[in-house]
Automatic annotation (TrEMBL):
The keyword Chloroplast does not apply. SUPFAM superfamilies: Clavaminate synthase-like. Keywords: Iron, Metal-binding, Oxidoreductase. It holds the Pfam family 2OG-FeII_Oxy. This is Fe2OG dioxygenase domain-containing protein. It comes from Capsella rubella.
C-alpha cells in the first residue's frame, strides 16, 4: 500500500497538487519571528508557584519537566497510534464503528461535535485542514470493548491502543489535577468541598491523537496544520513528536515552540481564563508544519469544568461549559470560526438565547 492510500481522499488531492483550493486559506499576513521561543519551564517534582503564576499570567503556556509519564509508554502509544492512523482510509472510517465504540475517527477539521464527529463548518470556513485523528473520551474507555466476532484483523492493535491510552490517560489526568490545584493556589481560589471537581471535572477528559500528513514533493506547502485558535478547555496537555510546527502568539508576534524530548507542553484554555477573571490567559496558537516531507504526530489531552457548573466572573456573563460549547458549535456552523469568550462579555449579543442573565 502506498502511504497516500491512508490519507483521506481530500488530502491526496492536495498533496498531488490537483486541488490547491481545497487547502485552508492562507491567513492574513502576521509577523512571524521564525525563531524558537523559550517558553517558561515548570518542574512538576519541584513546583515553583512564582514561576507558575508568571507563566500563566504572561504566557498561558509552559513546558513541563519531570512529569512522571514513562518514556516507554509515550513511545509505545505514539507507535501504535501511528500504525492505526496509517491504515487505509476506509479501514480507519470503519475501525471504531466495527466495535461499536465511543471513539471516533475525524479528518479535515479539528472542530468536532460532542459525539466526536467532525462539525459541518459554515460557508466562510477554510476548507480542508490537513490533519486527521482519533477522538478518545477517557470516561468512556471502560465500556469500549475491542473484541468483535468477525475476526477483524486490526483487533489486536486496537486492544493495545485501548490499554496504552487508558494508562496514558491516568497519568495525564493526575498531572492536570496537580497542576490545577497548584494554579488555583496562585489565584487564591477556594477549592473546598466539590469545588475542584466542578472547575476541573476529570470525567470530561478527552484525548485526541493527531496525524498531520507529509508530502514528498512539498505540494501541500501552504496547507496549515491547525488554524489559529484558543482551546476551550481549562487545561490542555500536549505531547508532540520531534517534527515541530507548534506556534504561539505573544504580544503581536508568532513564535515557534521547539520540541524538546521527554517534556510536555501545557496550555491554558478559555475556561481557565474565565475562572481566573482574565488574570490568566488562554493562549492563541496554531500548528504550521515546517518540514513538509515528514508527517507530524501529536497527542493532546483536554479537560473541562463540570458541564452544568455555572462559572461566575466579573468579566463574563455567568455561563456553564455546556452553554459555552453550544455557542462555539453554533458559531463554527454558521460562520466557520469559533468566537469563544468574547461572546460572553456582558455587552456581547449571544447567538443562542439560552444563557442566563446576570
Ligand atoms: O497538534 C498540536 O500540536 C496542537 C493541537 C492543538 O492545538 C489542539 O488540538 O487544540
Ligand atoms: Fe489547541
Amino acid at each position: 500500500m502506498s502511504i497516500n492510500e491512508s490519507y483521506p481522499p481530500a488530502f491526496r488531492r492536495v498533496i498531488s497538487g490537483g486541488d490547491p483550493l481545497a487547502t485552508a486559506e492562507v491567513e492574513p499576513a502576521v509577523l512571524v519571528r521564525d525563531e524558537d521561543i523559550k517558553i517558561p519551564v515548570i518542574d512538576l517534582e519541584r513546583l515553583d508557584k512564582e514561576i507558575l503564576r508568571e507563566a500563566c499570567k504572561e504566557w498561558g503556556i509552559f513546558r513541563l519537566e519531570n512529569h512522571g509519564v514513562p518514556l516507554a509508554l509515550t513511545s509505545r502509544l505514539q507507535e501504535i497510534s501511528g500504525s492505526l492512523l496509517s491504515l487505509p482510509f476506509e479501514n480507519k472510517r470503519e475501525l471504531f464503528a466495527a466495535v461499536n465504540s465511543p471513539l471516533t475517527y475525524f479528518w479535515g477539521t479539528p472542530a468536532l461535535n460532542p459525539s466526536g464527529d467532525a462539525l459541518k463548518r459554515g460557508a466562510q470556513a477554510s476548507n480542508v485542514h490537513m490533519l486527521e485523528g482519533f477522538n478518545v473520551p477517557l470516561s468512556k474507555l471502560p465500556t469500549f470493548s475491542t473484541s468483535c466476532d468477525d475476526g477483524d484483523a486490526h483487533e489486536p492493535k486496537l486492544e493495545s491502543f485501548r490499554v496504552l491510552i487508558e494508562e496514558y490517560g491516568r497519568h495525564i489526568t493526575r498531572i492536570a489535577v496537580s497542576l490545577f490545584e497548584a494554579i488555583a493556589q496562585t489565584l487564591s481560589l477556594q477549592l473546598s468541598g466539590n469545588r475542584r471537581s466542578e472547575y476541573l471535572s476529570e470525567s470530561t477528559g478527552l484525548i485526541r491523537v493527531y496525524r498531520y500528513p507529509g508530502s514528498s514533493d512539498g505540494a501541500a506547502g501552504e496547507a496549515l496544520g491547525m488554524e489559529v485558535h484558543t482551546d476551550s478547555s481549562v487545561i490542555s496537555i500536549l505531547k508532540e513528536d520531534e517534527t515541530g510546527g507548534l506556534e504561539v502568539m505573544k504580544g503581536e508576534d508568532w513564535f515557534c515552540v521547539k520540541p524538546v524530548a521527554n517534556t510536555l507542553i501545557v496550555n491554558l484554555g478559555d475556561m481557565m481564563q474565565a475562572i481566573s477573571d482574565d488574570e490568566y490567559k488562554s493562549v492563541t496558537h496554531r500548528v504550521k508544519k515546517k518540514n513538509m516531507e515528514t508527517e507530524r504526530h501529536s497527542v493532546c489531552y483536554f479537560v473541562f469544568p463540570k458541564r452544568d457548573y455555572v462559572i461566575k466572573s466579573s468579566n463574563y456573563k455567568p455561563f456553564t461549559y455546556s452553554e459555552f460549547e453550544a455557542q462555539v458549535q453554533a458559531d463554527v456552523q454558521s460562520s466557520g470560526t469559533k468566537i469563544g469568550l468574547p461572546r460572553f462579555r456582558p455587552n456581547s449579543p449571544l447567538f443562542l438565547s439560552s444563557c442566563r442573565e446576570i
